[in-house]
Design goal:
The chain is of the alpha/beta class and 326 residues long. It contains eleven helices and eight strands. The protein has helices spanning 16-20, 64-76, 95-104, 126-132, 146-153, 157-170, 196-211, 227-235, 239-248, 276-281, 311-314; strands spanning 34-38, 81-85, 108-113, 136-140, 181-185, 218-220, 263-266, 272-273. The longest helix is centred in the middle third of the chain and has 16 residues, at 196-211. It is globular and about 50 Å long. It binds iron/sulfur cluster (SF4) (2 copies). One iron/sulfur cluster binds at residues 258-260, 274-275, 277-278, 304, 306, 309-310, 313. One iron/sulfur cluster is lined by residues 43, 45-47, 50, 52, 54, 86-88, 114, 140. Residues 192-323 form the Arsenosugar biosynthesis radical SAM protein ArsS-like C-terminal domain.
Length: 326
Amino acid sequence: MKQSLCLEQIDGIPSFSKRIQGQDFCMTKPQLDIMQINISNRCNLACKHCHVDASPIHTEIMSRETMKDCLQVFGENNFSVLDITGGSPEMNPNFQWLVEEASKKGIHTIVRSNLVILTEKGYTHLPELYAQHKVEIVASLPYYSEKDTDRQRGVGVFKASIDMLKKFNQLGYGKIQDLVLNLVYNPGGAFLPPKQDSLTMEYKKKLMEQYGITFNRLYTITNNPIGRFGQFLERSGNLKSYMNRLVSAFNPAALENMMCRSQLSVGWDGLLYDCDFNQARGWTTEGVHRIQDLKGTPVTARKIVFGNHCYACTAGSGSSCGGVTT
Ligand code: SF4
Ligand code: SF4
């Protein structure tokens, strides 16, 4: 079932765009830092909170030509981080080529992994590849208990994730300076994440005590009311109350560091977006909106396309793919 209720038409929810109209935050910064590329809408999992609606039935993957375009635009505009995401990015047959090519160019690369894919046939060599190229890992682990994680991501996910985190530790991840292992927490329902600092301490304690696992940082991310999570909210009659919760928690201090201000998001087909959430809604950037058309052209500051889903980035301590923003 697709989400039918438009977030901009829910009674009593003020327009996010109007709320920040005319402020400096409506524009990107002149120099962008992060290019986030979504190279596969295919995923081995089908998590309940997924805002991009990824699952094993999807077939959309980024071509090698589009990856080359991304790398060219990255270099021409001095981006500092290549953030590779999906779906499960590992399921793109050109994934390994991309990691190696980025490494040759000296690019700092992040891969967002669900961990479970790395236990499946054909993918088990990838942790060593990541270590060899000093790829930063951002791994989903919705909670440090089996019950909560499996409820959100599927049966068996917690055990597979723990095995893989142990493997990353054996390779030096979370222990050696250049091998960074960060985890991601998502709330298991229609509520805001707890404080990132206190949850980090809890995760560190529990994962060390119970499994001997160590990691660098924990990112708490607010669930965005779109995609599969939006459909769940609508089905369960919780969409309006969740939106009200986000609006009530609106924090103006979170506007400065909204991730769209310093990143460019590229879809599997080369279309450009301000962020992954706009990508999930199909809202392309203002002005140029294909990576191919940016080649040889400086990326300049642009007006960001906002909607009411943006309340998820500005509630409480703020939320981004790198955790809290305030
Ligand atoms: S949340 Fe991540 S792991 Fe889960 S279905 Fe979506 S893309 Fe896949
Ligand atoms: S969803 Fe968040 S990152 Fe995307 S445009 Fe809105 S505020 Fe920016």
